[in-house]
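User: Run a structure prediction on this.
Assistant: Running it now.
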Amino acid sequence: QLQLVESGGGLVQPGESLRLSCTASGFSVDRFAMAWFRQAPGKERKELACIDGNGGFGTDYSETVKGRFTISKDAAKNTLYLQMNDLKSEDTGVYYCAGQPMRGIGDTCGSYMKFGANGFDNWGKGTPVTVSS
């Protein structure tokens, strides 16, 4: 059974940093395209960042987080990370990790993230992040 469990959320002040973790079971984060999404209160779930599967490390970011957030993975721990720096109030929301098997040669994580939440079939339950002074 494929399972994703996020952790690391909390309350921080603007300008601070936070690192989220997503531990997988039932599959390898190194084989799947993995991504982080955010759902702000009253809004739809939006893609933030993704990292390639099939042993690759290519990444892609939305313009809203590029330069502030970094996605990474640790295959040995089967865990996905999101390092978030210089947090802003608009970063408040529930953060979800998601995974999708890579179809084949030529695919990147962006091949799935371009479809937003519809590009991923496997989801965690989310961890809340609140950025407020």
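The chain has a mean pLDDT of 96.
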